[in-house]
Amino acid sequence: AQSVTQLGSHVSVSEGALVLLRCNYSSSVPPYLFWYVQYPNQGLQLLLKYTSAATLVKGINGFEAEFKKSETSFHLTKPSAHMSDAAEYFCAVSLNSGYALNFGKGTSLLVTP
Amino acid sequence: EAGVTQFPSHSVIEKGQTVTLRCDPISGHDNLYWYRRVMGKEIKFLLHFVKESKQDESGMPNNRFLAERTGGTYSTLKVQPAELEDSGVYFCASSQGTLQETQYFGPGTRLLVL
């Protein structure tokens, strides 16, 4: 079985501060991992994905995530938060990226001035 | 290129009524997925089409839900009869192939069953 845990349903950071959104997964085989973002009144947009190539994955809008097998983690980071980063972020796992995605519960990011 | 579109954007119905949701995938995408997010819960997979065939429907909650994809283009998801617990946001996604391909999501249909 595969599952995803996102620590913190709400995270608040100041503009310009580091963004760290945590994601841990459980999987009996090497997974494919994804981070999606949902802006208000929009669909989910892919930020980045890990598909067993480089462990440090760079995505759009300055986000990146590092796959750490020993820690079963795939945390999302951004060095400097922008007001436009306020959204809900979802971590997801799949044994094969074309098949069903299993999502975490999501983390709402609030960016304060 | 147009993205995944879903219709309607919102639907409010009474318990016992029928609702049909539609999804138009990105042109040329053979794979189409339905997901649902009930309030306060995570997004859950419902089913996966490859062209017109159901590849995986393990997430369908019960037989009140019927998904079709005639001709392998757009898909419909019908709920009949709707129950209160069916309320939530229904997302559709599509992808070209199954291996390492990104799933592109639509904006979702917000369903409220009263």
Short key terms for the protein model shown above:
heterodimer; A: 113 residues; mainly beta; six-stranded mixed beta sheet; B: 114 residues; four-stranded antiparallel beta sheet; globular
Structure description:
The complex is a heterodimer of chains A (113) and B (114). Chain A has 113 residues and is an all-beta fold. Chain A has strands at 3-7, 10-14, 19-26, 32-38, 44-50, 56-58, 64-68, 73-78, 87-94, 102-103, 107-112. In chain A, the strands form two sheets. In chain A, strands 2, 4, 5, 9, 10 and 11 form a six-stranded mixed β-sheet that branches. A five-stranded antiparallel β-sheet of chain A has the order 1-3-8-7-6, with no helix packed on it. In chain A, strand 7 and strand 8 (73-78) form a beta hairpin. With 114 residues, chain B is an all-beta fold. In chain B, a hairpin with a 6-residue loop joins strand 7 and strand 8. The radius of gyration of chain B is 13 Å and the shape is globular. The chains are: A mainly beta (113), B mainly beta (114). At the A-B interface, strand 5 and strand 10 of A face strand 4, strand 5, strand 9 and strand 10 of B.
**Rg calculated over all Cα atoms of chain A:** 13 Å
Amount of beta strand of chain B: over 45%
- The mean pLDDT of chain A is 90
Shape of chain A: globular
Percent of residues in helices of chain B comes to under 10%
Give the termini separation of chain A.
41 Å
**Global geometry of chain B:** globular
Number of strands of chain A: 11
Mean pLDDT of chain B: 93
In whole angstroms, the N-to-C terminal distance of chain B is 37 Å
The count of strands of chain B amounts to: 11
User: How many helix segments of chain B?
Assistant: 0
Poorly predicted ranges of chain A: none
Order of helices and strands of chain B: EEEEEEEEEEE
Give me the number of helical elements of chain A: 0
Structural class of chain A: mainly beta
Classify the secondary structure makeup of chain B into a structural class.
mainly beta
Rounded to an integer, what's the Rg of chain B over CA atoms? 13 Å
Subunit arrangement of the protein:
heterodimer
Identify the most extensive interface between protein chains: A-B, 23 and 29 residues
